[in-house]
Amino acid sequence: MAARTIAIYGKGGIGKSFITTNLSATVCKTGRRVLQLGCDPKHDSTTSLFGGVSLPTVTEVFAKKNLQHSHIQIEDVVFKRRLDGFERDIFGIELGGPEVGRGCGGRGIISGFEILEKLGLFKWDLDVILMDFLGDVVCGGFATPLSRSLCEEVILVVSNDRQSIFAANNICLANNYFNASGSNSKLLGIIVNRDDGSGIAERYAEAAGINVLMKLPYNSEARDKADSFDLAMRLPEIERPFRELTEKLLNGELSYCSPKGLSYEEFMSLFGEISGNRPASASFADLHLASKPEVDIDRLGVETIQNLSTIKSAESETQNGNALPKQAEFEPNEAEKTPKKPQPKALSEQEKLLFCIEQLPPLERDLISLHDIEKKSVEEIAIIKQLEQADIRATLGNARKSLKRLFFEMD
C-alpha cells in the first residue's frame, strides 16, 4: 500500500519544521513507519530528529556523485534513527539546495524529487511521508507537490500575524489553481503555532473556509527542547494536542476543506480598512531624469535571451548528470520537421538565436519558447501542452543540441 503523503507549508520562521518534526515523531510513536522529507534549501528540517546532525542533502550527494561518474544509492540520501523511548526507527531526507547566490532553490527542489522518484520514493515500505516545505516563496519549484499531486494532503502552519497568514493564503490560491488543472492535493486545514489567543488566524480561516486543526500556545520549554535538538512532544502539554491531531489524522476523522482563497482586498480587509485613495503615479520628472525612458515590449523577449550560454546553462542538472541513468531521448516525428528558412544577413547574436529557434521542428520550437523565453516551468508546460514531464525534458534537451549546432553553422 502506498504511503500517505502530506505536505506541510509555512512561512519561514513560523515553526513549520517544529510542527513537522513533532508530528512525525507522534505518528512514529503509534508504530507507523514515517519519513520526514525536508524540502527547504536551509536543510534543517530533520535536525531535531537526528540529534543536531545535518544530514547530507540530495543536492550535495548528486553533485559529488556526478563528479565521480557514479550513481546515487538509497543509502546515500536516506537516513534513520531510533529515538529514545520509541519502538520504531524514523526516517529522514533533506533535499537541500544551491549555495547562497549560486542557483535556484526551486530548481533544486524539482531536481531532488526527480532523483528520489528514480530511487522509488513512492514505492518504499512507508506508512506516512511528511514533506516540510517553505511556504512564502512563489517559485513554482516549491509548489511541486501541489502541481504534480505528489502529496495527497496539505497542512498550513500560521501564527496570528498577517505575514504568515498571507503566505498561507497564497498556498491556498496555488492549490486551487493546480486543482483546476487536474491536481488531486487536498487541504486539511491550518495549525496555529504560538497562538496568543487573539483569534486573527481563526478569523481568516472562517473567511476562507479552512479548518483549524490545532492551536498550539507559545511555550518556552518547547522552544528550549527544539533549540537543544530534542522533541517538544515529550512535554505533556505539547504531547496532548499532537496526539489528538494524530489520532484524527490516522483515523480519517479530518474532512477536507474547500477554501476559496481570498483576494488581496478581501484578505487585507480582515486587518483593517483599506484606503480608497488611488496611489498617484510618479513621473520621470519626479525622479529627476533628463529624458523619458520607454520599454519596447516587442523587443523585450529578444533581450531576455542574452546569449547562447544562457540557453546552455538553463539545461536541467539532472538531465545532464552522470549520477543518473541515461534516459532514452524523446524523438519528435520526422514529419513535424520544417525546411530551413533563408538566412537573414547581419544579425545580432540574439537575432541569430531566435532565427535558429524558428528552424526547429514545431514541438521543439514550442517547448523551447515556452521554457526559455516565456520562463514557464516544466510543470506548467506539461499542463499547457498535455505532455509528460519526462518527454518535455528530453525534447528540450534535443532542442538545445540542435540550437547549438544551428547557431555555430551560421558563423
UniProtKB/TrEMBL annotation:
| Record carries keyword Transcription regulation | no
**Swiss-Prot/TrEMBL GO biological process terms:** bacteriochlorophyll biosynthetic process; DNA-templated transcription initiation; photosynthesis
Cofactor(s) needed, names only, are: [4Fe-4S] cluster
Pfam families on file: Fer4_NifH (PF00142), Sigma70_r4_2 (PF08281)
What is this enzyme's EC? 1.18.6.1
Q: Where is the signal peptide?
A: none
* UniProt-listed SUPFAM superfamilies: P-loop containing nucleoside triphosphate hydrolases, Sigma3 and sigma4 domains of RNA polymerase sigma factors
Q: Does the keyword Iron-sulfur apply?
A: yes
Q: Where in the sequence does UniProt note compositional bias of the Polar residues kind?
A: 312-322
GO MF term (any one): DNA binding
Region (Disordered) spans which residues? 312-346
Query: What does the UniProt keyword field contain?
Result: 4Fe-4S, ATP-binding, Iron, Iron-sulfur, Metal-binding, Nucleotide-binding, Oxidoreductase
Q: Which residues form the RNA polymerase sigma factor 70 region 4 type domain?
A: 351-403
Q: What class of enzyme is it?
A: oxidoreductase
Instruction: Give the family this protein belongs to, as stated in its UniProt record.
Output: Belongs to the NifH/BchL/ChlL family.
Q: Which NCBIfam families match?
A: BchX
Descriptive protein name: Chlorophyllide reductase iron protein subunit X
The organism encoding this protein is Chloroherpeton thalassium (strain ATCC 35110 / GB-78)
